[in-house]
Amino acid sequence: MNHRGPVRVADRHAFDTLIDTRSPAEFALDHIPGAINLPVLSNEERVIVGTLYKQQGAFEARRVGGGMVAANLARHLAGPLADRPAGWKPMVYCWRGGLRSGSMVQWLRLVGWDAQQLAGGYKSFRHHVIEQIESIVPKLDLRILCGATGSAKTRVLQALGERGAQTIDLESLACHKGSMLGALPGVPQPSQKGFETQLATRLEALDLTRPVFVEGESPKIGRLSLPQVLVNQMRNAPCIEIVAPVEARLRYLLTDYAYLGDDPEALAKKMATLKEAHGKETAGRWQAWAMTGDLAPLFEELMTVHYDPHYQRSQGRHFLQWGRRLAVAAPTLVDEDIRQAAADTHQLTQNR
């Protein structure tokens, strides 16, 4: 693959390996899916070179940075790249397709590999992600899966995927369950850019002639914002409501959120934020239950006093077709019940 012109984002699938030469901190924020990180400057070295550039100019920054780059390239050649065959074809990128990726490409070509540099670097990939979201989302035939807190919407969505239906699991991409208590223990949310990269990757894999199921979400999942074009598309899509009794929902919540009892102080702190909405006495009672690990009465009141009224008020504002929603009963929310709800949901969509 000897490219006669510049390598573009669309060409990336034709290469054996994608190499991101940016610092580990840059890579962690977002990167092209499947890329490996072989930084030519570490996080600390990048700061040093940037400071030299500002204080002493480009020459001194390149002189010092050049030595760092050479040392790092030598380490990569002796380590991660030591077993690559002669016919290996990597695509290399940095922030803008400049010196960092250019220096690696030169060294790899000297070895004899057909290394190519991504024109425009990560920045061009970022433009690609935004363009994909903006162009694909308006073409989606969405079906919005709704339901009150504890109605196992995410589990039903996953069961739909197991049946072969097309789904976008936004909460999985966001590493967050979407509610006030939705943070996952020990699992940080991705960056906004990282979330959008995952979304664009999922969108590219969809068959636009078939329906796509997505859980009804507010415009934010944790600290991440849904792209406005997706919010608009969801707002106008048909809705399917999973209907389950309070008792079943409470049992489900006590299992699904059992880990909240592992950190009583953090849970009590969350309850303190509800004082303004529900008064000091109610919030104080919830804090006390949180501190003693009494999750059953806490979750029951949170459902009936906080979440359910908000759900009833908000659905009509968020989804224009809420008044014409279809209902799917899930009386117990055990595994078999969830699978049946998914089957019923799929059947309703095919009949519509």
Q: Summed up, what is this model?
A:
With 352 residues, this protein is of the alpha/beta class. The protein has two domains: 9-128, Oxidized Rhodanese, domain 1; 140-351, Rossmann fold (3-Layer(aba) Sandwich), CATH 3.40.50.
Architecture overview:
This protein is α/β, with parallel strands linked by helices and 352 residues long. The chain has two domains: 9-128, 3-Layer(aba) Sandwich (Oxidized Rhodanese, domain 1); 140-351, Rossmann fold (3-Layer(aba) Sandwich). It contains 15 helices and eleven strands. The strands form three sheets. Strands 6-7-5-10-11 form a five-stranded parallel sheet, with helices on both faces. A four-stranded parallel sheet has the order 2-1-3-4, covered by helices on one side. Helix 4 (99-111) links the parallel strand 3 and strand 4 (116-117). The two termini are 48 Å apart. The model has no long low-confidence stretch (mean pLDDT 95).
Mean pLDDT level: 95
What's the helix count? 15
Compute the separation of the termini in Å: 48 Å
Q: Any idea what the shape is? A: globular
Q: pLDDT under 50 segments (min length 5)?
A: none
* Chain oligomer state: single chain
The CATH architecture of the largest domain: 3-Layer(aba) Sandwich
- What percentage of residues falls in helices of 4 or more residues? 40-55%
Number of strands: 11
- CATH T-level topology of the largest domain: Rossmann fold
CATH class of the largest domain: Alpha Beta
Structural class: alpha/beta
Q: Spatial order of the strands in the main sheet?
A: 6-7-5-10-11
What about the largest sheet?
5 strands, parallel
